[in-house]
Write a structure and sequence with these properties.
Strand order of the largest sheet: 7-8-9-3-10-11
Bound molecules: adenosine-5'-triphosphate
Structural class: alpha+beta
InterPro entries: AAA+_ATPase, ABC_transporter-like_ATP-bd, ABC_transporter-like_CS, Mo/tungstate-bd_C_term_dom, ModC_ABC_ATP-bd, Molybdenum_import_ModC, Mop_domain, P-loop_NTPase
Domain Mop: 293-357
Keywords: ATP-binding, Cell inner membrane, Cell membrane, Membrane, Molybdenum, Nucleotide-binding, Translocase, Transport
Largest sheet: 6 strands, mixed
Strand content: 35-45%
Helix content: 10-25%
CATH superfamily of the largest domain: P-loop containing nucleotide triphosphate hydrolases
Radius of gyration: 23 Å
CATH architecture of the largest domain: 3-Layer(aba) Sandwich
Number of helices: 9
Number of strands: 21
Distance between the termini: 29 Å
Protein name: Molybdate transport system ATP-binding protein
Organism: Thioalbus denitrificans
Shape: globular
CATH class of the largest domain: Alpha Beta
Order of helices and strands: EEEHEEEEHHHEHEHEEHHEEEEEEEEHEE
Length: 357
């Protein structure tokens, strides 16, 4: 099961030759710079672009196979498509917009109920409104609910947050996370924003100039030193943690992961809850011995897996902390001073971390 895709297509001066496999559930990010071919690949998957050479299999069904002349037209592919612009019908209420695709789906094929979509995207109070009066974030939530109500076997999202301001993005991200947790529909999510990928993706397909340069789990894609994400100025690793307990005296919360326990300021989190932490490479430093007198609470035994030069003055370290991987950006001078070598045991200290959900 899952998604297996391969397309070869020329568009003017651009050529796409991209193949990938993605799991049949969760969010797979198609990530790359502007012009790397993400939207073109998504359009091929939707059947909006007919690649001369192409094969697409979704959960065991072949939607396209150029060698056999098989090409399921877009309207026969069970997909939901969410674009940057919501594209709602302006003369219809939110409720009518939602019903549009839903009514055309045979009752026996409906996988998402109207109430469920309304609840998941928090649309209860908006149903009677016209799209024109909604905020950008609200309109996009309606568009996502509408896509879900077409009962897709695959949800395609092409930079759904790109046209929104920061506040609307922040408002909509929790809804996207809920979809992820509560629906079994696989999502292909096009983005060039590393923070969205860190927050939402389970699996990442990296595109560069129309080619897939890497595919795999989220943290590997974020932390492999030979891949562009780790070399980005905003590079960060993601660590999955579980809320352990609160310390009422010092107003702290403890988060466990297989490499130890993070301490953060007290947050309204429930013990047992699972979440992601994002830790920027620039916020991690290393010491050879466990630091004695320090105000930094988050210090972990680590092992240096790999190091790579970033530029004349900076190095990037890939650190193994239990089962987790962290990145650290340090000066070449510090690395020489510490005599760092791959395989070496160290201590990693993190100055700052961000909760992602
Ligand atoms: N119909 C077309 N004719 C000619 N060139 C095209 C056509 N559509 C896309 N291209 C080119 O193909 C390349 C890939 O475009 P695509 O939109 O897939 O990239 P992208 O990674 O999604 O970029 P962005 O993040 O900016 O949307 C670009 O160089 C684009 O100019």
């Amino acid at each position: 099961m899952g998604i297996n895709a391969h397309f070869e297509l020329g568009l003017g001066g651009f050529s796409l030759d991209a193949g990938f496999s993605a799991p049949g559930r969760g969010v797979t990010a198609l990530f790359g710079r502007s012009g790397s071919g993400k939207s073109t690949l998504l359009r091929c998957i939707a059947g909006l672009e007919r690649a001369p050479v192409g094969r697409l299999e979704v959960n065991g069904e072949v939607w396209q196979e150029s060698g056999r002349g098989r090409f399921l037209p877009t309207h026969r592919r069970p997909i939901g498509y969410v674009f940057q612009e919501p594209g709602l019908f302006p003369h219809l209420s939110v409720q009518r917009n939602l019903e549009f695709g839903w009514k055309r789906i045979d009752r026996s094929r409906r996988r998402v109920a109207m109430d469920q979509a309304v609840e998941l995207l928090g649309l209860g109070r908006l149903l009677g409104r016209a799209p024109g009066g909604l905020s950008g974030g609200e309109r996009q939530r309606v568009a996502i609910a509408r896509a879900l109500l077409s009962s897709p076997e695959l949800l395609l999202m092409d930079e759904p947050l790109a046209a929104l301001d920061l506040a609307s993005k922040a408002e909509i991200l929790p809804y996207l996370e809920r979809l992820h947790g509560e629906l079994a529909i696989p999502v292909l999510y096009v983005s060039h924003a590393p923070d969205e990928v860190a927050r939402l993706a389970d699996h990442v397909v990296l595109l560069q100039e129309g080619r897939v340069i890497h595919q795999g789990g989220l943290n590997e894609a974020l932390t492999r030193l030979d891949l562009p994400l780790a070399r980005d100025p905003e590079a960060a690793a993601v660590v999955e943690v579980r809320v352990a307990e609160h310390d009422e005296r010092y107003q702290l919360t403890y988060l466990d992961f297989p490499g130890g326990r993070f301490t953060i300021s007290r947050r309204a989190l429930t013990p047992g809850q699972r979440l992601r932490l994002r830790i920027h490479a620039q916020d991690v430093s290393v010491t050879l011995n466990r630091p004695g007198e320090t105000s930094i609470l988050n210090v972990f035994p680590a092992r240096l897996r790999e190091m790579a030069e970033l530029n004349g003055s900076k190095l990037l370290l890939r650190l193994e902390v239990g089962d987790a991987i962290l990145l650290a950006r340090i000066t070449r001078k510090s690395a020489d001073h510490l005599g760092l070598r791959p395989g070496q045991p160290l201590f990693a200290q993190t100055k700052a971390l961000a909760l992602l959900n």
